[in-house]
Fold these 2 entries.
Entry 1:
Amino acid sequence: MISPMPECDLLVVGAGPAGVAAATVAAERGRAVLLLDDTPWLGGQIWRGEQQKPTNAQAQTWLNRLARSGVRIIGEARMVGLEGPGRYVIETPDHHWTIQPKALVLATGARELFLPFPGWTLPGILGAGGLQTLVKTGWPIEGQRVVVAGSGPLLLAVAAGLKKAGANVVGLFEQASPASLARFGTQLIAHPDKIGQAFGLRRQLAGVPYKLGWWPVRAEGVNQVERLVLTSGRQTLTVDCDAVACGFGLVPSLELPTLLGCLLDGEAVAVDAGQQTSVQGIFAAGELTGIGGNDKALVEGQVASLTAIGEHAAVFPLHRSRNGWRNFARALGKTFKPRPELLKLAEPQTIVCRCEDVTYSQLSGYTSWRDAKLQTRCGMGPCQGRICGAATRQLFGWGMESVRPPVLAARVASLIPSDERI
Amino acid sequence: MSQTPDVIVLGAGIVGAACARSCAQAGLSVLVLDRGPIGGGTTAAGMGHLVVMDDSEAQFALTSRSCQLWQELRAELPEDVEYDNCGTLWVAADDEEMAEVDRKARFYQERGVAVEILDAAGVASSEPELRPGLAGGLRVPADAVIYPPCAAAYLLADARRKGGRVEMDCNAGVAAIEGPGSVRLTSGRQIQGGIVVVAAGALTPLLVPGLPIKKRKGHLVITDRYPGFAHHQIVELGYLKSAHATQADSVAFNIQPRKTGQMLIGSSRQYNAEGTEVEPHLLGRMLKRAESYMPRIGQLSALRVWTGHRAATPDKLPIIGPVPGNDRTWIASGHEGLGITTSLATAEILVDRLMGRNPAIPAAPYDPARFEHAAKEPTHA
Amino acid sequence: MPEPEVINVTVNGQRLSVPAGTVAASAVARAGLVGFRAPVRGGPARGPLCGMGICFECRIMINGQPQVRSCQVICREGMELRTDDLANA
Ligand SMILES: Cc1cc2nc3c(=O)[nH]c(=O)nc-3n(C[C@H](O)[C@H](O)[C@H](O)COP(=O)(O)OP(=O)(O)OC[C@H]3O[C@@H](n4cnc5c(N)ncnc54)[C@H](O)[C@@H]3O)c2cc1C
Ligand SMILES: Cc1cc2nc3c(=O)[nH]c(=O)nc-3n(C[C@H](O)[C@H](O)[C@H](O)COP(=O)(O)OP(=O)(O)OC[C@H]3O[C@@H](n4cnc5c(N)ncnc54)[C@H](O)[C@@H]3O)c2cc1C
Ligand code: FES
């Protein structure tokens, strides 16, 4: 198919806060900008649904600015790979096309970390962010008993959101200890608006049992989850429920940057002061460079974009705020780091790779991700290790899974370059 | 290994694994060395089609003997080897290719291989996803498909289970063969054995300079599960006419139904392509070719694309036997696109020769000595 | 033209009306189904996990196309959703 925009000044992939900010500030300065998102929605995970039902002032400000800025927006469009140097392949539900931008900002965000525990494959157990996202697009939750468990500030937001949507949130369980949260609390003083947010959420959650230092050990049910068993290490608790929202924090989605050759720094994309990756002309912003939430994403998106279009003077004032959010991200990572007990929840028969049904016991004895993959099919399924790869990194200490095209399962037809089509 | 092993096998691909097993069955003690996991080289990248071929008498002899050995093993293969007796369907697009079907059919029948000639309607009904209007095809029902990395692991485990003395080290990069029966690891460690069998696939020339083995790169695509999309391993006969047999980069349509319900789509052939990166344009040509045979293939969801290097020889036959003038370094390599199939017969020939037994099929066509003249030429071009 | 408020789809042949903007995964859940996909080695059916298109647990057949991630598809008028197709397992 003919490319709707064969060239542009800036291509932004991912329409969450980082991508929205990046696209907006470049278009406001007169650049030709294309913003793509895999989903039909704007706003990424956090602002999903804001277009239809405005609830968040910050989201409204940015989405309005975006709408006025002249950015060309294409939804249900995702980058699946490269066709040649600087020529990217984009897949839409019915077609694929290529684009050759002058610069590229990757803002593809993060996903939840899932750690296997017995019963975690039962229907009704969803990611915390996962359930929230689905509820925003019609998932029936009214009157259902939901347990929220796992780790990270997202849990509070999810519990509040579910409650507002009519769920009966029967408990909120954070694995991090009260002590490490207290330490984190003192650091929040540098970010007073975050304290406000947290207190606001706690108010909305009045009446919901909220326990720190508790984590799930087992889910039970026949065809779907019926109860969740949790522990604090000393006591256990069984909670009857219809659904579980459970995630152990977020991890950056590194497949696209890795495929494009961007070097990593630990579990994040390495960037310089202008958010440029190790590949000239490719920038990264938001969760990709380290989990830190929407404020970090917004400022990084602007820095990346302004650097990419050469507006260096406009970048300078943003540095301080960006560095502050980077520190916040580091503190976040420390506070909500999964406790060692969480790595021992899987039993021999617990499935670790959900695509290929590979159990914990089948995986023990291998020395590397690749060895295990070749012999057990772990990570060979359609998710290509997006779920089990992060888990086995934690459980077995294996290295990162390797990335091959397409970035995410794509139609075979999308792998045929347009000039081979003639 | 406490004592000096009788045989050191370099490479834990399917060929090295098969050789180790045959050596152990002959009562020899074996040490297998690889720099990476079992079956992690080209064995992890190949299609795993067990196919009887007819390019030459020697190729037929090796492939048919091997397929027979695989069939004898079949009952004991564990489930993860995914042995699937799906058969091969060679498809003819036009009358010229149909003439090839007739020739092929005669060749196989004269040698006792059961085949079935299909007309246009027969091809259409046995593989409804193929485009209408194909001329016909040839079905070889005994051909099969396996999953090679688990097959390699099985062969090694089997040797041990049956009391064979096999040890292995998958963290042992070999730097060089130094002196008779002796190897030096990249770590600097020296290991002494009786003889060394080099089964290092496309990397063999790095250990035995001068062998006429060239890397020939191939691309493959695996899809999500679509059970029934294809029933046979389907291979076009068009590649006989196309450039697939020559030096240029080429593509041919080839699809393999995996036991999982997934479709494995191939393939490309390329010389002078040392890197492992996916090459979008060649991949595109390959998939367009596939789409021209199976129009709905474009709608399937592709999970992963990868590449592998075949070990190609000038006469398209593998190299099995001792290096001329050095009877303590043996070669088992150069299997191009057939090493999964021919691994078992390769091991059989190698060990029969080692033990001074008469091989089941004549060994001369695969003997390294056939290149002796060439091997003495300077290696640069 | 204003978007219609309600979209009609079928889930395993049964008619169902859902609010506009509902994704296919949510429609399946609204039809009262908990299992979306048969796991490859048997056991109870699976349902959505990530809600964002990366886990592939929510794959169903949509308008005859198997293996589609239902959490990423917005319901359109007349859309046919199937979870009962075994070839989809
Ligand atoms: C019969 C069969 C069926 C298979 N089925 C599946 C399946 O269902 N799902 C599946 O995922 N896989 C499947 N595989 C493929 C397998 O998982 C590996 O992908 C394959 O072993 C080789 O792939 P790889 O090159 O990607 O290996 P990797 O483990 O990725 O690495 C091999 C080498 O390639 C290099 N490499 C990796 N990525 C790149 C890159 N982007 N650019 C350049 N070099 C790179 C690495 O550095 C390494 O040296 C199957 C294989 C076979 C033989
Ligand atoms: C795209 C493609 C499709 C194919 N399809 C088929 C098919 O359908 N049917 C079929 O029969 N064949 C097929 N083949 C061919 C088949 O995959 C190979 O012939 C076969 O895997 C070769 O096995 P091997 O053991 O010789 O080599 P490899 O599997 O490459 O094993 C060699 C081993 O040696 C190790 N090694 C190398 N150098 C060193 C060193 N210095 N130190 C330590 N270890 C070392 C490597 O790590 C590796 O594990 C295909 C190949 C390709 C590329
Ligand atoms: S729920 Fe994970 S892909 Fe749809």
Entry 2:
Amino acid sequence: MTNSTEQAPGWKGVVNDWAADKETFNVPWGKLMMWIFLLSDTFIFSIFLTSYMTVRMSATAEWPMTSEVFALTIAGQHVPLLLIAIMTFILITSSGTMAMAVNYAYRGDRKKTFILMLATAALGATFVGMQAFEWSKLIEDGVRPWENPMGAEQFGASFFMITGFHGMHVTAGVIYLIVIANRVRNGFYEKKGYDIVEITGLYWHFVDLVWVFIFAFFYLW
Amino acid sequence: MTHIAIADQPEEELHEPSSFVTKYIWSQDHKVIAIQYSITAIFVGLVALVLSGLMRLQLGFPDSFSFIDPSAYLQFVTMHGMIMVIYLLTALFLGGFGNYLIPLMIGARDMVFPYLNMLSYWVYLLAVIVLMASFFVPGGPTGAGWTLYPPQAILEGTPGAGGGILLMLISLAIFIVAFTMGGLNYVTTVLQARTKGMTLMRMPLSVWGIFIATILGLLAFPALLVSAIMMLLDMTVGTSFFMPAIVSLGEQLDYSGGSPILFQHLFWFFGHPEVYIVALPAFGIVSDVLSVHARKNIFGYRMMVWAIVIIGGLSFIVWAHHMYVSGMNPYFGFFFATTTLIIAVPTALKVYNWVLTLWRGNIHLTTAMLFAIGFIFTFTHGGLTGLFLGNVVIDLPLSDTYFVVAHFHMVMGVSPIMVLFAAIYHWFPKITGKHLHTGLGKAHFWVTFLGTYAIYLPMHYLGFLGVPRRYYAMGSTEFVPDSAQDLNASITVSALIVGVAQLIFIYNVIRSLRKGEKAESNPWGAASLEWQTPDTPPKHGNWGPALPVVYRWAYDYSVPTAKQDFIPQNMSEEEVERVDDSETSSTEGGEDVKNIGDEPVGDNP
Ligand code: HEM
Ligand SMILES: [Cu+2]
């Protein structure tokens, strides 16, 4: 009766399958909505990064050496990008704990899910804390959104803006994780099913992925 | 985990809101939210209309109105443009008609996340309030032009450079949040909540237009959001994203090394798709209105769908045609001129299909139909001048003249407004259960339609003379003859008449609500689902006890063997009464339309 059940060759068949009635994607509403939101958010971050690259190219003053700026001095040793490497590692680890949480959620293990989600949130909070430390270091060095003793003032401006925007995403994610984790523990989703954990996970993985791009474009370039 | 399509799950008991507040104010019903959106949008639209009247008074009769000084003029231009494009058209098409039509047309009980949907409206209202507040801050609203180009937008010397521009940027950011909440809902609802039998390729074109426009919005508004954030930072914190080293009012400012051109790119990366955010829903809605009132299926349904999709995609790679005068590498100019002309191909195809839908149709000249046909005229007209402006060499002399003002008003000002009126006249009986007065409606149409031409045709000529846009007064120049002033006066008179004529419409609405003729449930004999609801206006939950089941596309009009001249989408093949029962399988009629999803359809005259 509906087109979806009829066979059609080639391109037409593809269109018919995608156009089938009721549901285009075989996923719950919330999950699809998260995907679409993340697509939109991808555009936001892409535009931030593109703008940063444009501004960097049009800046009149010299762009500072990022490996110099983002270096830690440990025991008299100058180690470039150390803090960032640790932060990136922490965030990627948190993606791992999140993935495990999703796995346990679908198995119905509420306690493990709860613990793993809290661990994810804790790693995220650590990341934000280290970010704050890095900000304070830059501020000590005299970098401000409107000035920069090391060269182009756009450096500080884009750095604070983009990492700040990303940091807000991480912070929101931490709160989101804690709320959902608590509900999981209380058995709120016993009837509805545990898709919500996966949806939270989608958001979290996205925030991690975005960080990898910020890392690549901001610190390594 | 096995996942069961929502449409296949047993329905839960619907919660009926019982108090006035939950029913009409904090309502989560998509129909109530749609009406809230529409009323708010029309209200701000009227503010924008009044502003345009004030501008015209100044242009037609310079120096006669002491309260319009050059700053005020610029503020009027800016607020008029921004309100019309974003707060009226975008909100009314997507928040208003999107909300009302999507669930009804695809056979759903509501949007997938009604609570988010409700929030979307209230956040939109907040954006409107913040915008309106800028009229009352010291210095008044911003006068930077709706494009808000820096550096001037935030510099001393531009009207509203303090609070005005600040509130404008904040209001835009809030609007984007509101739009995102609504937009996620619309897209997910269309993709996931269609009733049984409602394949994507059976959806009415209205839904297609709104659906693709919403996707464009979700991908284009980020550019506006990011540029608004960066401009806010430039303004308040003193960063230099968009600000080069600059001397303003004799003073060296504390900016250096920013890129004003970057803002233009970001703005138009949003701005051009924005044109299609208001145009695509208009395309969709007008297709449905034309088809219903011509008692004929839409010509080339599949082509129309693909054209909408392709136009939507292309609209992201044409933006720099707004920046030819900003200076760019000639190869870029060449690229953007080419893509601009390519986008004209699917657009022209749609126009042909509308005309071919009318061709030998049984045309009922209802008010809605008049506005729909009016749209074909104004849109074709504006589209043709667009071909001129898309070419670099022709755009350079015409840019920033009244030719441009005439072009964009025809194509994205008047044309979507025509469709909005068509839509209101068409769906009003379903929304309110009352008929609008036809005589008043037709008077409204003719004054608006003819008035449009009286306003904008002469502007093309003024543009050729070289009259610049956004000018408070021309003073005396060598290239503009004195007669241009007479033309300006006549444009102003027409604009005022058109403006006042909108009162006919408002009167008509109020009159009908109070003592209008009661409407039956399907007065136009339309086939699409929203006309098949058990109640008019549809009640909470839309469909009574059981969801409708869809058997066919939305355009079964004048099917040769059927007794009635339309077959509703939810009527199965067995229920259709045929003229001659012994010959039901004559391939001309029933069979042909039944498999609409598989065949290239509509090509049979
Ligand atoms: C009776 C209806 C209307 C009249 C009389 C009118 C009149 C005007 C006038 C006089 C200007 C200023 C021209 C200048 O000095 O540069 C203007 C600008 C503009 N109008 Fe309208 N308009 C009308 C409807 C609309 C509608 C429906 C839209 C919706 C898209 C619209 C969008 C704009 C825009 C975007 C601008 C440019 C603002 C700017 O330059 O920053 N107008 N209009
Ligand atoms: Cu454009």
